[in-house]
């Protein structure tokens, strides 16, 4: 039997994420140790998710206010110079939104790749465990049958 071992190496972003201050929902600081079954650790992860969701909400609110001001507060058609300055602002807003979307897609692809690697390692480990147990079962069966 071949006992090839694959060691798990955590990605760089997990080390970076663990450097954030961990705070539970009562705003009490927590230590940085990885304890997924601990209620306070789960609350700190929920808190980080809420901070990200709040940032997204503020971003969408600012974008909605900007677009409503752009649509509702139109100036007269006679002012040609103000149109040029508004189109520049709209262009840069579109560029920024496009870059944010590209970054989000890139992060999604990276997460997909990491998930794929994790599933592959899990499948490989289960295959090795099954192979080892089958080998032990043949030895135990041979020993019991020889009695």
UniProtKB/TrEMBL annotation:
Keywords carried by this UniProt record:
Cell membrane, Chloride, Chloride channel, Glycoprotein, Ion channel, Ion transport, Membrane, Transmembrane, Transmembrane helix, Transport
> Per the record, GO CC terms?
chloride channel complex; plasma membrane
Q: State the InterPro entries in the record.
A: Tweety (IPR006990)
Query: So where does this one cross the membrane?
Result: 45-67, 88-110
Q: Which GO terms describe its molecular function?
A: intracellularly calcium-gated chloride channel activity; volume-sensitive chloride channel activity
One Pfam match: Tweety
Oxidoreductase in keyword set:
no
Question: Its membrane topology, per UniProt?
Answer: Multi-pass membrane protein
Main location, first listed in the record: membrane
Where in or outside the cell? Cell membrane
Keyword rRNA-binding listed? no
Entry's family note: Belongs to the tweety family.
The record's function comment reads:
Probable chloride channel.
Protein's name according to its UniProt entry: Protein tweety homolog
Q: Which organism is this protein's natural source?
A: Carassius auratus (Goldfish)
Q: State the gene name recorded for this protein.
A: LOC113080026
């Amino acid at each position: 039997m071949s006992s090839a071992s694959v060691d798990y190496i955590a990605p760089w972003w997990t080390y970076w994420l663990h450097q954030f201050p961990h705070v539970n929902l009562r705003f009490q600081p927590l230590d940085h140790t990885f304890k997924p079954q601990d209620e306070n650790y789960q609350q700190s992860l929920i808190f980080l998710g809420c901070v990200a969701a709040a940032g997204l909400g503020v971003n969408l609110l600012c974008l909605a206010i900007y677009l409503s001001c752009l649509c509702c507060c139109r100036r007269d058609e006679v002012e040609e110079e103000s149109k040029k300055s508004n189109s520049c602002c709209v262009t840069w807003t579109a560029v920024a939104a496009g870059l944010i979307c590209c970054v989000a897609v890139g992060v999604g692809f990276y997460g997909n790749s990491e998930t794929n690697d994790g599933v592959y390692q899990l499948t490989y480990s289960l295959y090795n465990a099954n192979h080892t147990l089958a080998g032990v079962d043949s030895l135990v069966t041979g020993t019991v049958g020889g009695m």
